[in-house]
């Protein structure tokens, strides 16, 4: 079986770069919510590693919750019509909420999720994503906190996967084209 490390063309964001950036993002969030009591909503499964590292970089109280969503449609691009597979455990009315995502690609998924959560009347609703592919954007949505802007290449690692492979890698790497262009 192919080892995941043989599937990576380049390391795009190193473990050290991620660690450093997470500390900076945590400070930005603390500056916006100095009293803490923020709810991080991780979007399963890609954001699990990011949300757990980000939480541990925070010096104010944060709690976490998770949502699981899947995008309708057969194409490789998300449609913006999203099915909620797991909803929140907590009420977010009048709370300060940060949606934590692995990557914004077209933005369709986050746009839907943002509107869905906005309807529950949180006091503040922010978006934090580790990676952003601005070239691919279709939906009108912008993250408040962005780890790294990256080119339009398929990446895995640090929570992101290709067919569930690669989530455990401590860095973000570009997948070799032959892995996903295989017919
Ligand atoms: P949209 O297009 O709605 O989709 O912004 C966001 C979701 O698409 C997945 N995605 C990726 N997953 N490597 C991945 O492992 C990538 O390069 C990539 N680009 C998009 C991801 O699930 C994200 O939440
Ligand atoms: Mg995702």
UniProtKB/TrEMBL annotation:
Keyword DNA-binding in record: no
Catalytic activity: GMP + diphosphate = guanine + 5-phospho-alpha-D-ribose 1-diphosphate; IMP + diphosphate = hypoxanthine + 5-phospho-alpha-D-ribose 1-diphosphate
Role played: Purine salvage pathway enzyme that catalyzes the transfer of the ribosyl-5-phosphate group from 5-phospho-alpha-D-ribose 1-diphosphate (PRPP) to the N9 position of the 6-oxopurines hypoxanthine and guanine to form the corresponding ribonucleotides IMP (inosine 5'-monophosphate) and GMP (guanosine 5'-monophosphate), with the release of PPi.
Cellular compartments per GO CC: cytosol
Sorted UniProt keywords: Cytoplasm, Glycosyltransferase, Magnesium, Metal-binding, Nucleotide-binding, Purine salvage, Transferase
Cofactors (names): Mg(2+)
Name of the protein this chain belongs to: Hypoxanthine phosphoribosyltransferase
The species this protein was found in: Fervidicella metallireducens AeB
Cross-referenced Pfam families: Pribosyltran (PF00156)
Localisation per UniProt entry: Cytoplasm
Protein family according to the UniProt entry: Belongs to the purine/pyrimidine phosphoribosyltransferase family.
Pathway listed: Purine metabolism; GMP biosynthesis via salvage pathway; GMP from guanine: step 1/1; Purine metabolism; IMP biosynthesis via salvage pathway; IMP from hypoxanthine: step 1/1
Enzyme class: transferase
UniProt main location, coarse: cytoplasm
Domain Phosphoribosyltransferase: 16-162
Top-level taxonomic group: Bacteria
Enzyme Commission number: 2.4.2.8
GO MF term list: guanine phosphoribosyltransferase activity; hypoxanthine phosphoribosyltransferase activity; magnesium ion binding; nucleotide binding
GO biological process: GMP salvage; guanine salvage; hypoxanthine metabolic process; IMP salvage; purine ribonucleoside salvage
């Amino acid at each position: 079986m192919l080892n995941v490390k043989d599937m990576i063309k380049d390391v795009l964001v190193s473990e050290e770069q991620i660690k450093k950036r997470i500390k900076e993002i945590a400070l930005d969030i603390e500056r916006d919510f100095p009293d803490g009591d923020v709810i991080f909503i991780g979007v399963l499964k890609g954001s699990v590693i990011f949300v757990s590292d980000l939480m541990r970089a925070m010096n104010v109280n944060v709690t976490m919750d998770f949502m699981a969503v899947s995008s309708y449609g057969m194409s490789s691009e998300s449609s913006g019509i999203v099915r909620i597979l797991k909803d929140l455990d907590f009420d977010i009315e009048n709370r300060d909420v940060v949606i934590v995502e692995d990557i914004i690609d077209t933005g369709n998924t986050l746009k839907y999720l943002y509107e869905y959560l906005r309807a529950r009347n949180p006091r503040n609703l922010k978006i934090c994503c580790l990676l952003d592919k601005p070239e691919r954007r279709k939906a009108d949505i912008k993250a408040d906190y962005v780890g790294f802007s990256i080119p339009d290449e398929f990446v895995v690692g640090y929570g992101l996967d290709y067919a569930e492979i690669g989530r455990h890698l401590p860095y973000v790497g570009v997948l070799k084209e032959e892995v996903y262009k295989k017919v």
